Each structure stands twice: as C-alpha cells, then as structure tokens.
Amino acid sequence: MSKSAEANRYRFCAIASRRIPDWAVCGELNEGLESIHCVPQTNNSIVIQNLSKSLFDFGSGKRYFITVFVRDSLRGSTSSYETLEVNLRRPTETSTMMEKKVEMHSSESMFETNLLHDAILETGQLFPRKGSSLDYRFIVSNNTTISNKVLLIVHACEGYVRMSVLRNGNLLKRSEPFSGFRRFLVVNVHSGQLRFQVTNDDSQPKTIHLWASTEADKSPYPKLPEDTSVKVLRRTCSTATLQWLRSADEHAEYCIYMRRENANYLEELVSKASNLCEGGLETSELVGCYAHRGPTIEAMLNNDSIGLIETTIVGLSPAKTYRFDLLATPLQRIHAQSLPYRTVWARTTNSC
C-alpha cells in the first residue's frame, strides 16, 4: 500500500482470535474474537497490547490467530491477508508484566505471493487447515490482450476451496465453496495486476492447479460440453455400451477406466471417489484410449448426432456392477491436462 495514497483512505486492522477464523473468507465476524486493533495507512506495523489475561493463561505452545485487513473507506471494500498463527508462552512466575506485544510488520516474507505466469500451469499445496490460502499475482501489461479479458482456471483435486479475485487491490469476485474444475473470466482488463487467492474450505490438505492467460485458446484443459454425463445405452451379461458428447477440441483423446464394485449401496459407491487430477484412478483398470478428430461446423449443423461418441466395453461378468470413468485430454497442446466426465455405474444382466 503506497503511503502517497489519498490521505485517510485506508486503514489497517488486526483481529486476534482464539479460533481459526472464517471471516478471512466470508467477511463476517463470529465468536472467539479477542480484540481488534487499527492503524492509519501511514503505518507499516501494528502493536497488539493489553489483551485480556485469559490470552496468556494457557500453557506453552497454545495457538492464537491474527488476521490483518485493509479497509478502503472510499469504496467501502475490505481485503484480508493470510491469517497468521501465533504461539504464546506462559509468562514466568517472577514476571510482573502481564502485557504482551505482538508486532506484525507488513513484509513480503509474512504474506508471500507467488507470481503466476501467463499460460503456465502452476501447482500449489494447501495446508490442512481451514482458512489456509495460496496467493498468486498475475501481471497484465499494456496492449498484451486485444480482448481485454483474462481466463483463470482453478482445478481443486480434493475437497472444497473458495476463490477470490482482486484487481489492483479491489475485490472483484469471491466464489462459493467448490470442488473440481472451475473457470473464472475477468473482463475489462487493460493493464495492472490481478491477485488470485485460493482458500481451503476445510481441514484437509489439497493439491491445486492454476492456469491464467489473456489468450484462452492456450488452455491446457479440454473444452468439455455443458452436459458431461455418460449414458449407458445397452447392457448384456458381458457388455456395456456407453455414449457421451465429444469435447469442442479439434483433437482430443478419451480414456475409459473400469472398476468392478462390491458395494450394495449407491452412497458407498459414490464415497469412493478418487483424485482425478493425476489423470487416472488408482484402483481402476484402463479399458482403452480413443483419439478423435472433431467434426467441422458444417457437418455438425447438418447432423445433430455427429457430436456423439459411442463405444462398447466387452469381457464383463454377469450380474455385476461396474464403475466407468471417462477422462478427456486435448491433443497437440502444451502440458495437456485431463478432465473427467460424470462417473456412471452399470450392472450387467443376470444371464446371457
């Protein structure tokens, strides 16, 4: 934050809490709040003092959480830095001062921001703590994009995350929790800096893939149709015929994975969902991969069914339930990535 900014426009505030805060994500204060301290924009540090005695009544190694916000009084917006975890020790018996100070300097080392390069796929790891986050900067130079748009792709491999998009310090978008693959389009981007913050929405560790570019056609991911369902057209005692809509890519490869299920309940089947970011299923068998060239626009206009792909899996056992996963990968693309269609289950007939 530049000290030459409009006087009294910004204020830095630090919130001390006894619990892992949700307000860094949703902007709402909840119980567990210990204190709030604010300083004007000309300060680059905050001293927290005179906290309640209960703050120091715990043993060594107990945790407190400090979150720093910057408030824009002109726009009425608020942005938060990543929450800082602080361990406070019990004061010695000979100590007569119960006052403790936690000084936080606004330094790059505390709030580390990674640089996200144009059209380069990045991989990050979220710590197993709700509210932990990864910050990325994406710089748009003058005249780098004719469309004035930036496409951001986030692929969360396990569990749920939230996504915040900021432009030159102003919050543009804060998503609801989501899992899997999500696209974000930022418009009217002429130049400046975008900040992308991915926040863990639960207490599980996560692998995150991010990609951003002013040229959407360079995306390493396939252009899946809106309807990503896989339909079971026919079943026999030893075969299952599957059908799906092709992707919009000119060249794409489709790989089918199969696993025989022993569970009797759908809930148990669905709960076995695997991490699909790596392009396969650890407990499934690869049936085969099929490369397809997309049809021309004229051909698709003349024949609605030309966008459909159909294949038959053979060698199945009678009266058994099978799980089928379909992954699409664009061909002739740098660092091509796979995306899954919806999982489908099929049960073969009892007798032939």
Automatic annotation (TrEMBL):
Keyword list, A-Z? Repeat, Secreted
Q: Which InterPro entries match?
A: NDNF, NDNF_C
Q: Where would I find the Protein NDNF C-terminal domain in this sequence?
A: 175-352
GO cellular component, as recorded: extracellular region
Q: Where in the cell is it found?
A: Secreted
Q: Where's it mainly located?
A: secreted
Name by which UniProt lists this protein: NDNF_C domain-containing protein
What organism does the UniProt record list as the source? Answer: Angiostrongylus costaricensis (Nematode worm)
